[in-house]
Design goal:
Elements (H helix, E strand, L loop, with lengths): L19 E4 L28 H13 L4 E5 L9 H9 L6 E6 L8 H7 L3 E5 L5 H8 L4 H13 L6 E6 L8 H11 L2 E6 L17 H12 L3 E2 L9 E4 L5 E5 L13 E3 L4 E3 L8 E2 L1 H5 L4 H13 L5 H6 L10 H6 L5 H4 L2
Parallel strand pairs: 1-2, 1-10, 2-3, 3-4, 4-5, 5-6, 6-9
Antiparallel strand pairs: 7-8, 8-9, 10-11, 11-12
The structure holds S-adenosylmethionine and iron/sulfur cluster (2 copies).
Length: 346
């Protein structure tokens, strides 16, 4: 597939409009303690959810403005009915160059092949532990085996650059760092370790629970010897490293070494609110104009104007905060579910 020529739009810090994360649902079949630790949630209104036609239409406009790589996320994106159809619709748009998926893997086994055939380019599965009992404690669901089956199915379906994302929490799973690498090797997946972030929804976040990049590297070093930085410098959030035998891995140090200065990503929620930063407290409503009949050009202008004025660097600003706790108080999350990580799509 060849991407059409696009004129890139840049923000006030010179960052281009790049990757678009499309959250297709705010629902989830897990309750990860770093993302959805509460007993009850306020959900987006069903009638507000964008149809696949609306999502694909907006994604096409974004692609024209330079956001030609999309990632489906959620909530759990595979919970949305017939998401394979959305993948096929996006794949049919020549302006969209890459369609990736971030999933918890629970429902992946039965649809991995279908997704690949529909045009999905890449898959990242989130997995924080190799121990079923720990998985249950972390997610409140006894579905560990299904996630492992999902990862194996994605590997068998032949997705290139399969990734496993692991949020590392102190005293919870930080003793499994080498074990995750070993598991990644068995399925041909690259493991990326993510620092536990103080995003909306992480209502139990404390700096004491964060395992910083330096400690992750020290643990890898203790097991494998010297770790070589691969020194790639692009807009990807992960810094990549190689073990002495060449095995590659990533670390996403959003807390201790944020990558805001090169961040080109934005997020569209399932009900059409567009956020220019994971930490942004306000988004731009695209559903309203779309459903009121705004023209393609009007929506394109809205996107361009918002991006041109963007000065967000949420994680860097958070690092400057002296006393750091959860980003958003629980009562505000209840008032506006858009502030939740599981609505925004991570
Ligand atoms: N449900 C899918 C999944 O878990 O892969 C997609 C949505 S989830 C919000 C996207 C990513 O955000 C996951 O990899 C998850 O581990 C990560 N995430 C959620 N809360 C986080 C937190 N507080 N700190 C770091 N990563 C977090
Ligand atoms: Fe876990 Fe993803 Fe669900 Fe959040 S959205 S609870 S990270 S599976
Ligand atoms: Fe991008 Fe905001 Fe994350 Fe910084 S905090 S990397 S600007 S999304």
């Amino acid at each position: 597939m060849f991407g059409a020529e696009v004129a890139k739009v840049h923000d006030t810090l010179g960052r281009p409009l790049g990757q678009l994360r499309l959250s297709v649902t705010d629902r989830c079949n897990l309750r990860c303690r770093y993302c959805m630790p509460e007993e009850e949630y306020h959900w987006l209104r069903r009638e507000d959810l964008l149809s696949y036609e609306e999502i694909a239409y907006l994604a096409g406009i974004f692609a024209e403005k330079g956001a030609n790589k999309v990632r489906l996320t959620g909530g759990e994106p595979l919970l949305r009915q017939d998401v394979v159809r959305l993948v096929a619709m996006l794949a049919a748009d020549p302006r969209i160059e890459e369609i990736a998926l971030t999933t918890n893997g629970v429902l992946l086994e039965s649809c991995a092949g279908e997704l690949r055939r529909a045009g999905l380019s890449r898959v990242t599965v989130s997995l924080d532990t190799l121990r079923p009992e720990r998985f249950f404690a972390l997610t409140r669901q006894d579905l560990h085996a299904r996630v492992l089956d999902g990862i194996r199915a994605a590997a068998a379906a032949g997705f290139p650059r399969l990734k496993i994302d692991t949020v590392v929490m102190r005293g919870v799973n930080d003793d499994e760092i080498p074990a995750m690498i070993e598991f990644g090797r068995t399925v041909g997946a690259e493991v990326r370790f993510i620092e536990y972030m103080d995003v909306g929804g992480a209502t139990h976040w404390s700096p004491d629970d964060v395992v910083p990049r330096a400690s992750i590297l020290a643990r890898l070093q203790a097991s494998y010897g010297s770790i070589l930085p691969l020194g790639e410098n692009d807009s990807a959030p992960a810094e990549r490293f190689a073990l002495p035998d060449g095995t590659a891995l990533g670390i996403i140090a959003s807390v201790t070494a944020p990558f805001c200065s090169s961040c080109d990503r934005s997020r569209l929620t399932a009900d059409g609110a567009w956020y220019l930063c994971l930490y942004a407290l306000r988004g731009f409503d695209l559903r309203g104009p779309l459903r009121r009949g705004a023209t393609r050009e009007e929506i394109a202008h809205l996107i361009e104007d918002a991006w041109t004025a963007r000065d967000d660097r949420g994680a860097e600003r958070r690092r400057e905060t002296r006393v750091r706790g959860p980003l958003v108080p629980l009562e505000n999350l209840r008032r506006d579910p858009h502030l939740e990580m599981h609505t925004r799509g991570g």
